[in-house]
Amino acid sequence: SWGDLPDDFTLVLHLAAAIVPGHDFDSAIRINAEGTGKVIMKCLAGRCADLGVLVRSGWRAVSFLVDEGRVVGCLVLKRRTGELLAVRARAVVLAMGGIGRIYDDSTYPADVAADSYALAFRAGASMIDMEFVQFEPTITMHPEQCRGMEMPTAMLGDGAHLLNAAGERFMFRHNPEHGETRMEKARLSLCIQQEIDEGRGLPDGTVWFDTTVLAPEKLEGYVSHCARLRAAGMEPSREKPHVHPAAHSHMGGVFIDEQGWTGIPGLYAGGEAAGGVHGASRLAGNGGSDSLVFGAVAGREAATGMDPPAERDWDRIQAEAFGPLRSAMDRSGSTDPETVKDGVRQVMTRCAGLHRDRRGLAEAERDLDMMRGADDRGLRAADLAEASRAVEAANMILVARMIVKSAALRTESRGAHQRRDFPDRDDDNWLRHVVCRRGDHGELVIDTMRVH
């Protein structure tokens, strides 16, 4: 509620509303000067300071503290110094994002490596809808200094155009009435990729994002994007960035109930760590709402459902949590964890991208199994920092296998999951979730569950 905001908090809306892909009405509000995410984080940081909440920056979660099936905290590491910290808790909210950088081109921060899913999976939680990977349709490839920057699809609602190498607004072939607008991101990405695959894209495998047609007051409203383009030597009022689809977000994640509970005592999840909220295709502009709404739900339920203080064998619990790091350091392998991560990204981009088929998914599963075998034999881990990277590599392999196995099982096309060999939606057989869970011996088990 507005009454909960700090007294000195000022919200400035340079553009009150915008039409974004998948919406029929002006349903998105943007904050141009700083960006929505920065404003939300500033507000959160201020509220934490008011409440005296201790905030620790620069630490990475390695594993949960678990006691008799209950999550009772988390082991975290500061790589720069090699410090370990065991944080004991009566409830834990998992809010570490989604799949991270398991694809070559991705909008995820460089340090997000799908750890949230792996942590929850190893604690016994189920994953849901892992095959549904959202590809952002308009990610910058040129200018090079802006590579990976999202060109906002809201710009298309404001009047920007998508052009192929011939200068054609090709989206009118796919969406005759509205062109680039009123189309969900999943379909927009597919249309752009089709244009590129069929040879009508630019030589670098992109299309033009024409910002030159925007009214000056509209263009300048995108303050940070214009600043970055100009810093890279491109004037967006006269030159057009090159864009293509890239991995952006995820509809899958930890299976939660309406309270944000994962089914594991003491563990809740919100934001992109939680799955099943957006179905098979997340509409543009809904990510922020998801984080705010489900973050609040999970936080409230975690606070009210905290386990009473209890006597625990903390030495044993913390030693068990340290197990993955110890195991990595005990091995004598020579493979660099970063090499394995690069391999995962290459496999997923090649075989489990915007379009999938049985042959490619089988190839991905085989390659990922080989990488898992290399991890079992031992990645190089001379110290705690390198051991944590080895754990991350194992997490990326695990989550990539979940996506590939789930995509192979879903023999239809729906939302962001598109099978070339099964191009049609099949409600009779596939109006159901694909669920990944941990078997009795730690193995990955795939089931299905009817949609209620």
Structural class: alpha+beta
| Number of distinct helices | 14
**What best-fitting shape do the alpha-carbon axes yield?**
globular
Distance between the termini: 32 Å
The biggest beta sheet reads: 5 strands, mixed
User: Uncertain runs with pLDDT below 50, 5 residues or more?
Assistant: 9-16
Strand order of the largest sheet: 14-12-7-17-18
Care to give the gist of this entry?
By secondary structure, the chain is α+β, with helices and mostly antiparallel strands. It has 14 helices and 18 strands.
List the helices and strands and how they pair.
Layout: E1 15-18, E2 28-30, H1 36-51, E3 60-67, E4 70-78, E5 83-88, E6 92-94, H2 115-122, E7 127-128, E8 133-142, H3 154-157, E9 161-163, H4 171-174, H5 185-197, E10 207-210, H6 216-219, H7 223-231, E11 242-250, E12 253-255, E13 267-269, E14 274-275, H8 286-304, H9 314-321, H10 323-330, H11 337-351, E15 355-356, H12 358-377, H13 384-409, E16 418-419, H14 427-430, E17 432-438, E18 444-450
Parallel strand pairs: 6-13, 12-14, 15-16
Antiparallel strand pairs: 1-2, 3-4, 4-5, 7-12, 7-17, 8-11, 9-10, 10-11, 17-18
Structure description:
With 452 residues, the protein is α+β, with helices and mostly antiparallel strands. The protein has helices spanning 36-51, 115-122, 154-157, 171-174, 185-197, 216-219, 223-231, 286-304, 314-321, 323-330, 337-351, 358-377, 384-409, 427-430; strands at 15-18, 28-30, 60-67, 70-78, 83-88, 92-94, 127-128, 133-142, 161-163, 207-210, 242-250, 253-255, 267-269, 274-275, 355-356, 418-419, 432-438, 444-450. It has a 5-stranded mixed β-sheet with strand order 14-12-7-17-18. Strands 8-11-10-9 form a 4-stranded antiparallel β-sheet, covered by helices on one side. A 3-stranded antiparallel β-sheet has the order 3-4-5, with helices on both faces. A hairpin with a 5-residue loop joins β17 (432-438) and β18. α11 packs parallel to α13 and α12 packs antiparallel against α13 (384-409). 44% of the residues are buried. Residues 9-16 have low confidence and may be disordered.
